[in-house]
Write a structure and sequence with these properties.
258 residues, alpha/beta, 2 domains, 6-stranded mixed β-sheet, 9 helices, 29% helix, globular, ATP binding, ABC_transporter-like_CS, nucleotide-binding, P-loop_NTPase, ABC transporter ATP-binding protein
Length: 258
């Protein structure tokens, strides 16, 4: 893969100075416009790795490059102009309207005295996600699915090169899960997202990385990664893996212990 949008190489990270690394020897690449999924058991290091990718956790070794630039050699503003993040939990809204929350995505691009010069971009993004009729509504009054769309709109007006998502379908019902992931694919951005639902990861991701105990243990297309042997070894559960009857990606059926 040439000229990856994101390239993580030889990354080690520990939550404590001098402590045992929680992440060890991580290598990961994301190409332009590629949707990459990160999967693994609870406590395997998914969230910690994502935090390293968006310049929150500083590695003790290794490098994180965005468009060929070391993100730790750049200031936070430079990174925020290029990487947007959607986390699991909804932020405190402090009484903000939908439009106010979306407008926050422009903050990395604004100077001290800039006004609301990005009004057309904000309104266009709201319209694109069918949120314009809700623009003046209080963010706190929205449903979970609507809040996720608002946070996606905020990320899009940030105009990033890379969008990082930690469990983007958490707390959403199936209809909103599918709608949100399709909207993400339609952005054309480079995407890195962690998943608990492996069938969703299989359906929407171009490639997957499997992390277990802080190490990448497998990577490739969903068909290459989501094998019965890999699932048994990493998740400790037996599964039947076949082909989805309406698509080409794998379908996983978990087998309950007798």
């Amino acid at each position: 893969m040439s000229c990856p949008t994101l390239h993580i190489q030889g990354l080690h990270w520990s939550p404590h100075s001098g402590g045992q690394p929680l992440l060890e020897g991580i290598d990961l690449r994301i190409g332009a416009g590629e949707f990459v999924g990160l999967i693994g058991p609870n406590g395997s290091g998914k969230t910690s790795l994502l935090r390293c990718a968006y310049r929150f956790n500083r590695p003790i070794a290794g490098q994180v490059h965005l468009d060929g630039e070391d993100i730790w050699q750049r200031n936070p503003r430079w990174v925020a102009q290029r990487i947007a993040v959607m986390l699991q939990e909804f932020p405190e809204d402090f009484g903000l309207s939908v439009r106010d929350v979306v407008a926050m995505g422009r903050t990395p691009h604004l100077g001290w005295f800039d006004g609301d010069g990005d009004a057309s971009l904000i309104d266009d993004t709201l319209a694109r996600l069918d949120l314009l009729p809700r623009a003046l509504d209080a963010f706190i009054c929205l449903s979970g699915g609507e809040k996720q769309r608002v946070l996606l709109a905020r990320a899009l007006v940030q105009q990033p090169r890379l969008l990082i998502l930690d469990e983007p379908t958490n707390h959403l019902d199936p209809r909103f899960q599918l709608a949100l992931l399709q909207q993400l694919r339609n952005t054309g951005l480079s995407l890195l997202a962690s998943f608990h639902d492996l069938n969703l990861a299989a359906a929407f991701c171009d490639r997957l990385y499997v992390i277990d105990a802080g190490r990448i243990v497998a990577h490739g297309t969903p068909g290459q990664v989501l094998t019965e042997q890999c699932l048994a070894e990493v998740f400790g559960v037996q599964a039947l893996v076949d082909r989805h009857p309406l698509a080409s990606h794998p379908r996983i059926t978990w087998i309950s212990p007798a």
